[in-house]
Structure formats: structure tokens, C-alpha cells
Amino acid sequence: MKISRSIALLMVVSLFAGQGLGADKNAKSSKSKPAKAKKAAVEKKRPVRNPTPAQKLRKEIPAVSLAKMPLMRVLKHYEKLSGLTIRADWNALRNIGIKKGTPVTLKTGKIRFDKLLDLTLNSIAPKRHPLSWYRDRKVVKVSTQMRVLLRNRISMLSLKDIRPSTRTRTRREPARKRRLNLREINFSQIALKNAIAFLREASGENFHVNWRALEITGITRDTPVTVKAKNISIARTLDLVTEQLNAGRDRYSSVYWLVQGGIVKISTGESLDKTISVRTYEVGDLLTIIPNFKGPKISIRPSSNSNNNNTWGDDDDDDDDDDDDDDSPREQRKKIRGTLIEIVKFSIGEDMWAPTGKGSIKILRNKMIISQTPLGFKLLEKSMIR
After folding, report:
1. What's the average model confidence in pLDDT over 170-175?
2. Which of 42, 127, 243, 321 is 20 to 30 A from 24 in CA distance terms?
């Protein structure tokens, strides 16, 4: 009898002990779940230490409220919000009536920065002249949509497009591996000839320097250059070298590099402004007429009969600028062609085109045909990527 009571007592004790242990486990697990959730939330909110420009464009921006703020100030404000560098092509924008002081009125909730930029540009774009932006390395550039699209049309040859001539290869000689990006450049007052020799060896490309043309402008083989950079392309290194040589020079005495026939040629603007070549660009989509859909006219002023409610009244002003609504499709296309030609001509200067210069430009159907010197094409390429 005593044995049975002892066994029963032990069973009761073990039962309560087991319940207590289970309770402890449940308590621990219930405590650990909020802790894990809290840790995950903190990690999710933790900002990236060194975000890339693409990540900055996708950054969530808190609510934005602008009331007739000048566009120049808006872009500066957006630089602080996003951490990006923003540059506007004021020359192209001025041609369609957009100025630094153009007022911007916009109100949004939480929004991604790239979407915010789209909304801002759409809010101030004139009819049939949409605005656009693109990212060039670490800089966001704002311009007209036509200029941005035209930029993508201009064929910009760089070292990555070069293919060594098959006639100079032999079956026994494999093509040399070309290093288009360098980990580090450290030119400190080294002779120009040595800098070019280094880039020739690093890229595996053929270089031809017109030393006679350079010497006429005062640049010799021993002219010192200084360039220090990391993770830089061969093309960008050549840009930095020539920019340093060109300080204080006009376009004809400046030094340029370009690619012709698979060879990197370095010469002066004067020597590159003699021969003429022709290039053709497809611009059919740029000539498309953008319809002007008429929507309701809305005023952002509170209606006078709204009794202080948050309602908005219609704008009774009928003096909307519909001057070009009556243009025929043919006339509109003619205007677009004229604008496109002006953009190209203005980008490198009127003096590069006939009758003063050697260049000419025309549009036949959906093709833009440009006749220009190597200097003209180089200046055109530089203007489209700056």
C-alpha cells in the first residue's frame, strides 16, 4: 500500500514537473518570436552603407509637397533627398520654354525617387515636348525626351567596340586579351609618350599619334601628364589625359582621340577637320507626332463655394495655349524635323555646318543623314554624353 502511494505521488510530481517544463519552453519560444521579428525589422530598416546610384534611384522618399518652387531649387532639393548628383541640360530645356525659375507644384505621398522624378518632369513639360532623364555613371541628367532619344541614336565608338583586324592576325597568334578597365591609374608627371605606351599595352589596341600635329600646338612627346584614378576604363583615362592637355585651348588646337578602322587615333582638332564622312541614323520614332489629349481643366485652388471643405473647383480660364492644335500632321512633322536638326546643329556650334563649316544635315523619310568631319562627329558624341 505504501509502495502504491509512493508511486502515485511520484507520478503526480513528474506530471506537474513536465507541465512546468512545457510552460517554460512555451514561454521561451513566445519570447524568442518577438525578438526575432524585432531583429528582422531592424535589419530591414538598416540602410545600405554604400548604396549604388541604381539603389538611390529606387530609394523610398517620404511625402513631398512643392508649391511653385523654382525648378533649380527643386533639383537641388532632390539631390539632398536622394544622395544623387542631378544636372539639367539648360540649353535644351530653354529651347522649349523651361527655365531655372520655372515653378513646380507637386504633392505626393511616399514614393520611389525615380517615380518622383518622372512626376515632376511630367508636371512642367510643355505640350508635345515631353521631358526625360537618364543616368550617366553617377549623375542623373535631365533634358528633353527628343534629346535623350537622340543621344541613344548617336553611334559613340569606344574601345569596347574595337575588333582587331583579322588581316593582322595569324592562326598561331591568338588575339590578345584586352583589359578595358583598369584597377588603378597613377600617372604623376609622366611623359605623354609613356602614358600612351602604357594604355596601348594595357588595352592591347593599336594606337596612332599624330605627333607632328601635336607639336605644332606646343605639345611634345615629353609633355607631362598627371592622372590618378581607380576602377577606370581605358576610354575614360584617354578623356582625362586629353582634357588635361586641352586646358585653355580652342576646339582646333585641342587634342582628341577617336576610333577609325579599328585604330585609336590621337590628333588635334585642326588635323581632324579636313576630311568628310557620312553617317546615317534611324530617327523614325523621334518624328512621331505626340497627340494632345484634351482633359478636364482643373485648378488647384479651393473652390469659392466649397464652404472650407477640401474640394477643388474647375478652372474657368479658357485661354489655354492651343496655338498649335490646328496644325496639320504634315506641318507638325515639319516642325519636329526642324527641332531635331536644330538640336544637332546647336550641340556642336553653327560654325561647324555649311556655309561656314564643312558639315551638312538633312532628314529623308525616317533617316537623318549627317555629313561631317571627324572633328564634328567627335564633338557631337561628346555633346551627347556630357
Report:
1. 41
2. 42
> How far apart are the C-alpha atoms of 46 and 333, rounded to whole Å?
52
Rounded-to-integer distance, Cα 198 and Cα 218, Å: 22
From the list 142, 140, 124, 120, the residue with the least C-alpha distance to 132 is: 142
Q: What values do phi and psi take at 29, rounded to 5? A: -65, -40
> How many whole angstroms separate alpha carbon 373 and alpha carbon 358?
7
Distance CA 70, CA 72 (A): 5
> Is residue 274 predicted with pLDDT exceeding 50?
yes
Instruction: Enumerate the H helices of the chain as residue ranges.
Output: 2-45, 53-57, 71-82, 90-94, 113-124, 145-153, 192-203, 211-216, 234-245, 329-348, 374-385
Asked if the bond preceding 355 is cis, omega within 30° of 0, the reply is yes
In angstroms, rounded to a whole number, what is the distance separating the alpha carbons of residues 300 and 84?
30
**Which comes out higher in pLDDT, residue 166 or 48?**
48
Q: How far apart are CA 275 and CA 286, in angstroms?
A: 29
Q: Label residue 30 by pLDDT band (50, 70, 90).
A: low
Model pTM above 0.70: no
Nearest Cα to 318, choosing from 300, 296, 333? Answer: 296
User: 297-302 long-range CB contacts below 8 Å, 24 or more apart?
Assistant: 300/105
Angle at which helix 374-385 crosses helix 329-348, to 10 degrees, equals 100
In whole angstroms, give the CA distance from residue 33 to residue 23.
15
Residue 147 CB neighbours (<10 A): 26
Note whether 258 and 157 are within 8 A (CB).
Answer: yes
**Are 352 and 376 contacting, i.e. CB atoms less than 8 angstroms apart?**
yes
Tell me: pLDDT of 51 over 70.
Answer: yes
Handedness of CA 383, 152, 287, 289 (dihedral sign): negative
Indicate if the pLDDT at residue 326 is higher than 90. Answer: no
Helices 234-245 & 192-203, crossing angle to 10 degrees?
170
